[in-house]
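Troubleshooting: if your tokenizer reports a length mismatch, compare your output against this known-good record of 227 residues.
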Amino acid sequence: MSDHVLSLSKVDVFQKDNLILKNVNLEIGKGEFVYLIGKTGSGKSSLMKTLYGDIPLKKGEGTIVDYDLSRLREKEIPHLRRKLGVVFQDFKLLTDRTINDNLKFVLKATGWKGKKEMSTRIEVVLDKVGMKTKGFKYPHELSGGEQQRIAIARALLNEPELIIADEPTGNLDPQTSVEIMEVLQQINKNGNTILMATHDYALILKYPSKTLKCDDGEIFEVVQKAV
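Known-good structure output:
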């Protein structure tokens, strides 16, 4: 078992036939918190989609949570995603069911069977994001920040080795963004590895960590200057 949850070597990222990122080399170790920055259209989302199997890896070598991305078969993608937690900008909660039922839906889809085990797991993840008393509510009854907390709880359900967060504060006001970052920081302190795409440089200054930048078709590490 490697100490890296993600390792890419000489990877080119394509959207259909368009080359988006070239010669990507990066490694993320267990327990790291890594930012991914860059302008809109610079390739952040395309890279993340490649990592969770939405875009096939056609050129280069890549492993993520012990899956070989260059040899990933379609039937393996659900298994890969069970070892990843993906958090989106727009929450992607099912609006016609309660928070508890949203989370139960994911557990059932990923092979959980026992009612008691599912209820206990749901309670644990809601507690981790400070939403233990909100399970009976529907998404529309929650604020944006609360919905994102639920999305993070959902990402934690199967104890993922890596959490991929694509602009998780993109739809939130500055104060709520800080609250969500506090949740992510705490999860990281508990041992979860996090890769987070963001436009929010204020958050990076407030919570400095390893930062990768997509620019001009390439990815490189940014050395943060002391503020």
